[in-house]
Amino acid sequence: MTTERQKIDKLKKSIRLALPLAIREFNEIRKPALEKAWGRKFQDEFANEDPSQRTVEITKTYSRPLNNAIYREISKRLPRFKVANINGSDLIYDGIPIEDKNSFSDSNSWTGNGFPKVPFHLLKKFTVNDDGVITKVFVAIVDTSKCKGSWTAKTTKRNSSSLKFAIGDEKFVEPIFGTINKKPKWLNPVQELI
User: pTM of the entire structure?
Assistant: First the structure.
């Protein structure tokens, strides 16, 4: 019988193979299709965004077509990998529910609604160049149930929260692309060129 650890290791290996192909598809096919739909280039679409909201808007705009490309590539390798928005999960791999988060910011956190729904998270960070091409990435699988770091509380000024990881959590943050740097209190994801 395959253990949970073996399943996670197999998923990590498949993501390592799938992600470069999915990002190539996104950069060469999906991004140009978005620009065609917008009727203008990436630079023009995001030129007037408030700098504090720019990465939020890019994340919202890019996430669905990018995730679909990633999921298709993973599914080719792992037929038991499924998109499944059930009981707080976004994905299910061989019986393991997984929450998926994207971010296009260079911060050390991911944004969500603040409620831990399932232990395993697939956390992705991306950097785009001035033309909107994805050039760097950090991806990790994290068992958040074992981490000291957690979702921050919502405030009256913000209806979302942030997930970041504390020193000591590094053994539960399993990078697939990129590395982790330790800051005085928090872990910092470091993206790698793709």
Answer: 0.92
